[in-house]
Automatic annotation (TrEMBL):
InterPro entries named in the record: Alkaline_phosphatase_core_sf, Sulfatase, Sulfatase_N
Limits of the Sulfatase N-terminal domain: 43-343
Signal peptide residue numbers: none
Family: Belongs to the sulfatase family.
Gene3D superfamilies: Alkaline Phosphatase, subunit A
Renumbered residue ranges of the record's region Disordered: 427-449
Top-level taxon: Archaea
Name of protein: Arylsulfatase A
GO molecular function: arylsulfatase activity
Pfam families: Sulfatase
Length: 449
């Protein structure tokens, strides 16, 4: 253990957060906000990301356990088939905040084969790509990111006036959010909850709610190399129950946050990516050469549905309430929010405004963190997965095969053309830097060996 303070979580949180705040101040002290946004309908804006939240584990979207009663009652638009721009946090959050895919904002690896586990780190997004907190800061908003996941802050923390990075569960994060917004006139807050991310934060009361058994290694992962063997089925069921209990814990805390913010606040809630629970071990071995030897668990290694499909909720005056199964992307959030705020002369984004379905529009997920890079493109219910480093390409008809059990090789030309239309893009500037304390936390979260 390189950081002895890890034995004292409260003290370690304060230490890590203070170091990060100092670094954040140094990054921003000579920085000018180079945008000049004009907001015609000024409203407060709240983004909430629940890390690792799968769409099919949302109770209103058909899950058989009551994981999300707060979000089920959300007064706004709900999208059950949103696509994460990337299967892990570092590239996905900049896409959410910029309305551009990873190959466009540059927060990505420069190598085809990648191994985050051995500290091969990606580049941060290019400074020239605008994000919504920067645009709103230029219009007089206070901006902050409060996060339990360091990857979010490492990717985009410098785009906010304030960053608070503490490895604490939703109850503490929501309390800090309420403290931050209290008394502010005009604000943009990005709150990133880490409860469903391994190691899980499972509230004691919801262990009983979901009948979570006392099984060894439940908060983290076992059976990562092989989805078989003595005790696997019992462990897998218990691990899913524990995940659901952690989602319910985060959902409970969101109730008091959503009740407290002003009624005219523009609210966005989503997962930044999903989480795999042993759905496709054989297919993943075909489509990946994971340097860790892990298949079909966790995230960052695959663009299959369990990792790529996330839920999205948006409460904005420009969107009708109700649930939609339209396939949308998290890059659609920024243009939708800018339109809701009536922001004049906003920079162009790749995303499209939500609420205007276009089944012919390609949607992307890209930039894995382990093994050869993978790219997926959806056109309506057809999905193509390409792994150039392994010369693999398979496609799925999700209308007939939503579980991706039947990979096909005769790729339709329109799917090929959709992926070929995406250019190589840009790469970021400096590589993500990690100090010893953050390295310890990334190891605990499973990113590093």
């Amino acid at each position: 253990m390189s950081n002895p303070l890890q034995r004292f979580p409260r003290l370690n949180n304060a230490f890590v957060n203070t170091r990060h705040k100092v670094k954040h101040w140094l990054e921003r002290r000579d920085r000018d906000v180079s945008y000049d946004a004009t907001v015609g309908d000024p409203r407060n804006v709240l983004f909430v990301v629940v890390d690792c939240l799968r769409a099919d584990h949302v109770s209103a979207f058909g899950h058989d356990r009551s994981t999300t009663p707060t979000l089920d009652a959300f007064d706004g638009a709900a999208f059950s088939h949103a696509v994460a721009p990337s299967p892990w946090t570092f590239p996905s959050v900049p896409s959410l905040l910029s309305g551009r895919y990873p190959h466009e904002h540059g927060g990505r690896f420069e190598t085809e084969y990648r191994d985050l586990s051995s500290e091969q780190f990606p580049a941060r997004p290019t400074a020239s790509v605008p994000t919504i907190p920067e645009l709103l800061e230029s219009a007089g908003y206070d901006t902050a990111m409060l996060t339990a996941i360091p990857m979010a802050a490492k990717a985009t923390g410098d785009r906010f006036q304030t960053v608070d990075m503490r490895y604490t569960p939703a109850a503490d994060q929501v309390s800090r959010a309420l403290d931050w917004v209290d008394g502010r006139d005009r604000w943009f807050l990005h709150l990133h909850l880490g409860d469903p991310h391994a190691p899980l934060d499972v509230p004691a009361d919801h262990r009983e709610t979901f009948d979570v058994p006392d099984v060894e290694g439940l908060e983290d992962w076992r059976f990562r190399e092989e989805a078989s063997g003595e005790g696997f089925e019992a462990y897998a069921d218990a691990r899913r129950r524990a995940y659901d209990a952690s989602v319910r814990g985060a959902d409970d805390e969101l109730a008091r946050l959503l009740d407290a913010v002003p009624d005219d606040t523009v609210v966005v809630v989503c997962g930044d990516h999903g989480e795999a629970f042993w759905e496709h071990p054989s297919l993943e071995r075909r489509l990946n050469d994971d340097p860790r030897g892990f298949y079909a668990t966790d995230h960052g290694h695959s663009v299959l549905e369990e990792v790529a499909r996330v839920p999205l909720w948006v409460d904005a005056p420009t969107l009708p309430s109700g649930t939609s199964d339209e396939r949308v992307s998290l890059v659609d959030v920024v243009p939708t929010v800018l339109d809701a705020l009536d922001v004049a002369d906003a920079p162009a984004t790749t995303g499209a405004e939500l609420g205007a379905p276009d089944p012919s529009r390609p949607v992307l997920c890209e930039e894995t963190a382990y093994g050869y890079d993978q790219r997926a493109v959806w056109v309506d219910d057809a999905k193509l997965v390409v792994v150039p480093g392994l010369d693999e390409a398979v496609w799925f008809d999700l209308s007939a095969d939503p579980g991706e059990s039947d990979p096909r090789e005769d790729v339709p030309e329109d799917l090929r053309a959709a992926l070929d239309s995406v250019d190589a893009g840009v790469y970021g500037e400096e590589t993500m830097d990690v100090d010893d304390a953050t390295r310890d936390r990334l190891s605990e979260l499973g990113y590093l060996e």
